[in-house]
Write a structure and sequence with these properties.
The chain is 41% helix and 23% strand. The protein is an alpha/beta fold. The chain folds into 2 domains: 83 residues, 2-Layer Sandwich (Nucleotidyltransferase, domain 5); 132 residues, 2-Layer Sandwich (Nucleotidyltransferase, domain 5), CATH 3.30.420. The protein has a 5-stranded mixed beta sheet with strand order 3-2-1-4-5, sandwiched between helices. Helix 5 runs antiparallel to helix 8 and helix 6 crosses helix 8.
Length: 270
């Protein structure tokens, strides 16, 4: 049995491979330690992520000799590459956006990945701004509010600046300035939630599309914990349609790329 743990800034993602079968768990740091306490006969524990050291220091001493520390960036793209193959969608080349607390963007080609771009805008921005503006950092609550809001009461749209754009189904949906609407003071909390989500997704989508076009790659894979929510996926697809890039795709177990990739890199390096 092998265990891969991606201890991120917000969540801890765990993949357990037992008798050839994968089990996926999302928890916090204490939950990960509780799980480790139930598997004294694990062959290897592969750790990655910014809080991997905190887990290793607190795990039972009998398990520390079985720990492999995997590079966080390599783990993420290696896990995504493996998941695409497992889902019957192998790609020789693709762009990978790691939508975590912040965001890294990779180009993956021929089974090798390179971090090409990144931004501090990510899930941490989504929950952080929501705590400041909405009084909650709970992801599901934010998504529920965003689903019922109208971001156009908060965002300045291209059609607000160019009246002729109102007749274009594309231009009247494009953002000119996030949070730039003059009437934003009358926005509801739901409208604010929708605008916060849009700003985060737009930033990641635009950077990913620019990387894809620069490297002449069609497919953009977006993975990370926030991508499990249908509204997040919908916003990416809408932006892809508006910006002329129809190849945003998501992984069934996308939040667990880093955890699976930690196991893969551990196996490669012995």
């Amino acid at each position: 049995m092998e265990i891969g743990i991606d201890a991120g800034g917000s969540l801890t993602k765990i993949v357990v491979i037992r008798d050839g079968q994968k089990e996926y768990t999302m928890t916090d740091l204490d939950g990960a330690l509780d799980l480790l306490g139930t598997v004294p006969h694990c062959d290897r524990i592969c750790l990655t992520g910014c809080r991997a050291n905190a887990i290793e220091l607190r795990m039972p001493g009998t398990l520390r000799s079985r720990v492999y520390r995997a590079d966080e960036l390599e783990s993420f793209w290696a896990g995504a590459h493996e998941m695409l193959s497992e889902e019957g969608r192998p790609r020789h080349s693709f762009v990978l956006a790691s939508f975590g607390t912040g965001t890294s963007v990779f180009t993956v080609s021929g089974g090798k990945g390179t971090r090409t771009a990144g931004t501090g805008v990510g899930g941490g921005t989504l929950t952080g701004l929501s705590r400041l503006l909405l009084g909650t950092g709970d992801f599901d609550t934010i998504m529920d509010m965003a689903s019922r809001g109208n971001r156009q009461t908060v965002d300045l749209m291209v059609s607000d600046l160019y009246p002729d754009a109102e007749t274009s189904p594309v231009l009247n949906k494009l953002t000119a300035a996030n949070f730039g609407a003059l009437g934003a003071t009358a926005a509801s909390r739901e409208d604010l939630a929708s605008a916060i989500l849009q700003m985060v997704v737009e930033t990641i989508a635009v950077i990913s599309i620019q990387v894809a076009r620069t490297h002449q790659v069609d497919t953009i894979v977006v993975a990370g914990s926030p991508t499990k929510h249908p509204l997040v996926r919908q916003r990416f697809q809408e932006l892809g349609d508006l910006l002329g890039h129809d190849f945003f795709t998501f992984l069934e177990h996308g939040p667990y790329c880093g955890a699976l990739g930690a196991i893969i890199t551990g196996e490669r390096k012995g």
